[in-house]
Automatic annotation (TrEMBL):
PROSITE patterns: RHOGAP
Amino acid composition bias (Basic and acidic residues), ranges on this chain: 149-159, 167-177, 239-267
GO biological process: regulation of actin filament polymerization; regulation of small GTPase mediated signal transduction; signal transduction
Gene3D superfamilies listed in its UniProt record: Rho GTPase activation protein
Listed Polar residues bias regions: 114-130
Function: GTPase activator for the Rho-type GTPases by converting them to an inactive GDP-bound state.
GO molecular function: GTPase activator activity
Bias (Low complexity): 97-112
Protein name listed in UniProt: Rho GTPase activating protein 18
First and last residue of the signal peptide: none
GO-annotated cellular components: cytoplasm
Domain Rho-GAP intervals: 371-570
Length: 705
């Protein structure tokens, strides 16, 4: 691609010679959430071929002539002698082009009708992953063309809705990113007391006291940057002091040393499969950076699914904590820490990730497609309280699975446009009435509706704020750091987005499990779904051709990692939980320093009878487990080295036959002490946890799913 650019040739678009049905659009009039059907010709080209459009710069005719002399006229200028059978699946390394017969696509320079074809070698689809760069990425561009040909947002030409959204977007003012970051981290009062209200739950000093060195450096960098911005705003005419300009650089502090045995040799970081979650990811990355300055990132997807490292968490005896296990108060604290840690991790690699500010988008207030996730879930809660994933998405997934996951090309082959349009409209009117006839929905149509649902969200599933950060993950130097960054980003997503994304990647994995028959490997699914997740309609009008080409492999890689490591990404790292515990303990110390509060607590202690058996049992190697929701209110259990949380539940159920709840619907909770509330992993060793939090109470409750 660089060779063509240097000689006045610009790649302006990719054209997939996909099999076209009589109509390839999806649906719609202007009032419908379903996109309109374009009027394009039905060219019956081979599904296995594709090409890029080339645009020549008229100012480089001499360079083009030299190219012809060197490579021949057909290769240098894309002569018309190339036939469809000669062009194979294209990639950025092997661009080709062909005139487009689509009036809508021709309106964009990416689909210029004046572009000419260029011959390519033929390729056959391979399931060994060896030809991924050409054939599997070909599926990405086919999916892009399917999206554009559906008429959603009218491509880069821009529909009215997209134009309006673009007009509302404005460039951020100086210091706006830093202010937004500090506000989200709850630290804006560090720079200006007038910004933000007093936080009574936790003051900034407590929060800052628990940060690691790299986390503190990330905060200090944003605070200093914002303070300098405020100074420039207040005194625009201030002349800098020459001593400030030529002041010698301050010496950096020594990088923090990891605990002995806490991290492996940095040279084996890429092959090491055990993830250390006890030491902050940014601290590990700093150690890696200092030992591997010259290593570069290799984000090639040209590897088999089974070649990805088989990462696993180091087993923690105090239990693994998953998203949803913590109380809302503790999760709020964890999220602030995760934001600072994510920023610190990118800082160690010299990557400046700035969150975008979401613009105001006109969206529907009811319906199924084109409705904000929160609005959609509010609708669903009135029919099914407690649901965390939109009902329409759940039903589409279940219908695809009911038809069987062995269908070849599942998710890759699009449904019939006219049927998808009709189904979309019928669903809008009859889904909640439960009168919709699901038997009429073909499997590929249901898969197309699922992808349409994702694309039509007013804001991207990965959120406008963190979309840049997700894409920037590819710049991190190792797969381990990329995985760690994705773990933090998943935790930063709003609950509705996080739960919906989880449902999707779980479904994708079930499709991949049938790859022997459906021919949809991890890489295949990733490249097909990447444009649907990242190229949402508000974004498609803003991205340039060059950005789209560079994003292709990057976004596919992100989707691949989300699917492959989903069991790790929806967990809260132990070091984050440790910092939450430290904050809770520090807050308690500050509370007890207040004499008036201490006197009040003393009065409460003397007036209220306390069951002193609990601390006494703890010192004697017993814990008392309470179950106020059930007939057997409490029981004493002796702590042993091998006693796990699942053993406690088993013993409780065996002693109370009146309990009708299944074991998997119950959870042993750690409550109080240095944590607000935490649902315990079944493999948690109770003796180790009771030593970590001796003041905790242990309560069995039904899990709120």
């Amino acid at each position: 691609m660089s060779r063509h650019q240097s000689q006045g040739v610009v790649l302006t678009g990719y054209h997939s010679n996909a099999e076209l049905l009589p109509q390839t659009g999806l649906c719609g009039d202007s009032t419908s959430s379903c996109p309109p059907v374009p009027n394009r010709e039905s060219d019956l080209h081979s599904r296995k071929t594709g090409h890029y459009s080339l645009e020549h710069n008229q100012s480089t005719q001499q360079q083009q002539q030299q190219e012809e002399d060197r490579y021949g006229p057909s290769l240098a200028t894309g002569g018309t002698g190339a036939s469809n059978t000669e062009s194979g699946s294209g990639s950025a390394a092997h661009p080709g082009s062909q005139p487009s017969s689509s009036p809508k696509l021709a309106s964009s320079p990416r689909h210029s009708p004046n572009s000419k074809p260029r011959p390519q070698r033929t390729c056959q689809r391979s399931f060994s992953q060896d030809s991924l760069d050409e054939l599997e990425m070909d599926d990405y561009w086919k999916e892009i063309e399917n999206i554009k040909s559906s008429g959603e947002g009218h491509g880069r030409a821009g529909g009215e809705g997209e134009t309006q959204e673009e007009e509302q977007q404005k460039a951020p003012e100086e210091g706006e990113h830093e202010e937004a970051w500090l506000t989200e981290a709850g630290l804006v009062r560090l720079v200006d007391d007038s910004l933000g209200a007093e936080d009574h739950e936790e003051d900034s000093a407590v929060f800052l006291s628990t940060l690691t060195r790299t986390q503190a450096a990330a905060v200090q960098l944003r605070v200093s940057s914002y303070q300098q911005t405020l100074l420039r705003r207040r005194n625009r005419q201030h002349l800098p002091d020459v001593r400030d300009i030529f002041r010698p650089p301050e010496k950096n502090e020594e990088p923090p040393k990891l605990e002995e045995g806490s991290d492996k040799d940095a040279t084996t970081a890429e092959t090491e499969t055990e993830l250390n979650v006890e030491v902050a990811f940014s601290e590990q990355a700093l150690s890696y950076r200092d030992n591997n300055q010259r290593l570069k990132v290799n984000n090639s997807l040209n590897s088999s699914d089974d070649k990805l490292p088989n990462f696993k968490l180091l087993r923690d005896k105090t239990g693994q904590t998953r998203v949803g296990d913590l109380s809302p108060l503790d999760m709020k604290k964890a999220r602030r820490l995760v934001l600072v840690e994510m920023t610190a991790l990118f800082d160690t690699a010299g990557i400046d990730v700035k969150a975008n500010k979401p613009g105001r988008v006109k969206s529907k207030e009811s319906g199924l497609f084109g409705v904000p996730l929160i609005t959609l879930l509010d609708q669903d809660h009135r029919r099914d309280p407690g649901t965390k994933v939109p009902l329409i998405l759940q039903r589409l997934i279940s219908h695809v699975e009911e038809e069987g996951l062995d269908t070849e090309g599942l998710l890759r082959i699009p449904g019939a446009a006219t049927r998808v349009k009709s189904l979309c409209q019928e669903l809008e009117s009859s889904f909640y009435d439960r009168t919709f006839q699901w038997k009429q929905v073909k499997q590929h149509d249901a898969a197309s509706l699922l992808k349409l649902f994702i694309r039509e969200l007013p804001h991207p599933l990965l959120t406008v704020e963190y979309l840049n950060a997700f894409i920037a993950v590819n710049k991190l130097p190792t797969k381990k750091q990329q995985l760690q960054a994705l773990n933090l980003l998943v935790l930063l997503l709003p609950e509705a987005n996080r739960d919906t994304l989880k449902a999707l990647v779980e479904f994708f994995q079930r499709v991949i499990n049938h790859q022997v028959k459906n021919k949809m490997t991890l890489n295949n699914v990733s490249v097909v779904m990447a444009p649907n997740i990242f190229m949402f309609k508000g974004f498609r009008s803003k991205v340039t051709e060059q950005q789209e080409f560079s994003m292709a492999t990057s976004t596919a890689n992100i989707v691949r990692l989300l699917i492959r490591y989903q069991n790790l990404l929806w967990t809260i790292p132990k070091f984050i939980l440790t910092q939450v515990r430290q904050q809770n303990m520090e807050s308690q110390r500050k509370l007890y320093k207040d004499r008036a509060v201490r006197k009040l607590l003393k009065k409460i202690t003397t007036d209220r009878p306390i069951d002193k058996a609990i601390p006494e049992e703890n010192t004697q190697g017993f814990i008392r487990v309470q179950a106020p929701q059930f007939s057997k209110i409490s029981m004493a259990i002796q702590l042993t080295e091998d006693l796990q949380a699942s053993d406690v539940l088993t013993r409780f159920l065996s002693q109370d036959s009146s309990v009708l709840v299944k074991k998997e619907d119950l959870c042993l909770y750690e409550i109080g002490g240095n944590i607000k509330e935490r649902c315990l992993d079944g493999e948690t060793y109770m003796k180790d946890l009771s030593q970590l939090n001796p003041a905790a109470e242990w309560v069995i409750k039904a899990v709120q799913r």
